[in-house]
Amino acid sequence: MKDIKIMFLHGLEGTPEGSKPTFLKGEGYRVVAPALPKDDWELSVRRAEDCFLNFRPDIVVGSSRGGAIAAAFPTGHVPKILIAPAWKKFRLKNLHVENTTTVLHCKNDELVEYTDSERLQDLGCRLIECGTCHRMSDPHALEELLKTVKFHSKNEV
Does 156 score more than 70 pLDDT? Predict the structure, then answer.
């Protein structure tokens, strides 16, 4: 299972070396995380699409703004894990989410409304409530992220 390739899209204030991609690497996954400029949405989406085409990940994970970026382009059969996705804050109109998309979100999120993720659930995504705040880097949130990666690894690869 450790040959699973994950493309990680960080949030607005995040970095490719942040806690979640570092956690996934520590669990033995091959993780690539492109740098996404916070002041250029279009360039961020293009970088994510280019990385997707070149790296050919088994799973795409996006956190906050990175979750919105992941929802901005189709990935075909490749599942997505969206962590507190800020799709509504970035006025994303065309959502590319499928029944292979899992959303992880904290009901106490102070930046992204939990109801935004409930709307994604209405579109067919699986929604898992976890975590203590928007950062979603507490032990419970990371445990759910790992379980979700393992779930998609078994079912999609």
Answer: no
Domains: count for the chain: 1
Cβ-based burial of 37 (10 A; exposed 0-12, middle 13-18, buried ≥19): exposed
Looking at residue 113, its amino acid is E
pTM of the predicted model as reported, rounded to 2 decimal places: 0.95
Segments of the chain assigned E as strands: 5-9, 30-32, 59-63, 80-83, 101-105, 126-129
CATH of the domain at 70: 3.40.50.1820
User: Distance between CA 87 and CA 30 in Å, rounded?
Assistant: 26
Q: Which residue range(s) make up the domain with 78?
A: 5-156
Cβ burial, residue 114 (10 Å; 0-12/13-18/19+): middle
